[in-house]
Design goal:
Blueprint: E1 13-18, H1 26-38, E2 41-43, E3 45-46, E4 59-61, H2 66-81, H3 85-103, H4 105-113, E5 116-121, H5 127-133, E6 140-145, H6 152-157, E7 158-160, E8 162-164, E9 169-171, H7 177-185, E10 187-189, E11 197-202, E12 210-212, E13 218-223, H8 229-241, E14 247-253, E15 260-264
Parallel strand pairs: 4-9, 8-10, 13-14
Antiparallel strand pairs: 1-6, 2-12, 3-5, 5-11, 6-13, 7-11, 14-15
Length: 265
Amino acid sequence: MPTSTTTPTSNDELYKFRPLREDADTNKDRSYVEDILLNHRLYCAPARSFNDPFECRVRWNYDAPQKTKLARVVQGLMRSQKLSLRQARRRAPSCIDAAENGAIEGVTNWLLDTVGMACLVAAYDNVLMWSHYASGHTGICIKFQKRSTDHFVFFGDASKVNYQDDVPIVNWYKHDKMEIVRKSVYTKATMWKYEREHRIVQPKLSPDRYYYFDPHLVTAVYLGCCISDKDRELVTQCCKNRVGTVSIYQARRSDTAYSLTYHKL
């Protein structure tokens, strides 16, 4: 494998960094790795558990003609609460008042606590990613590669995150629910751009919060340059016991540059 700081990848490859920490979280971290390698599923975590305090934050905007506001709220009440047109029209003004005076915070909490996300990235050899998401290079990075037409669904579900300097604006009356989700969960600050993140978002979760995938999507596992012998053995055994063939690479520090080299085991 070539030495580089950020290896370009095609649209056919995505990666998942995972820690294997020797502390109170060890069992949880290892069970997540085993889930990916042996149970062929990704945990869709709530955004509130992420390390960015600005997750799912938007600037709410309420600019719209009164007629538009009433029509939007009436339709929503008829659909969600099964009200008649007359009942919805009667209740609409108070709903508009509540939304514009803070009740909309419930939507933010729904995005943070209920919507699930599995996060992947577009490169395996960014040193910062190893430091931040593989517990200081003691964890692993798992490669997902498109190998058949069946895998287009997985890569289609993994949408790119948009990076920008300003918090996105959402108009409560003009944007539908999916547009609100899109702006909230697929937008992050420019400072995170180095991650080149893709997200699989599950607005309606199964009870166990997992996203299941074809096991043949996993084609390689990269071991951190500081991984322990015990964890190397654990990961190697998982790769041997799973469906499909998986290549294993060991990361090593370069002797001449602040970068990593990868060697097939």
